[in-house]
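Can anyone check this?
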Amino acid sequence: MNRGKIIAIITGAISIILAIAYLVLVQLLDFRGEMKPAPVSQLPQQVIVLE
C-alpha cells in the first residue's frame, strides 16, 4: 500500500474511535438522570436599592 492509503486508514480509525468514545460519554451523562434546577432557597438573594 502507498503512504496515502495508510494515513487515510489510520485517520478513519481514529475518527471512529473518537465518535464511539463521544457516544459512550453522552450515554453515561444521560444515564445520571434528569437535570434539576437548583432550589430557589439556595440562590443568592438580590438586594434592590431604590433612591
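Reply from J.R.: I decoded it. The two ends are 80 Å apart (CA to CA).
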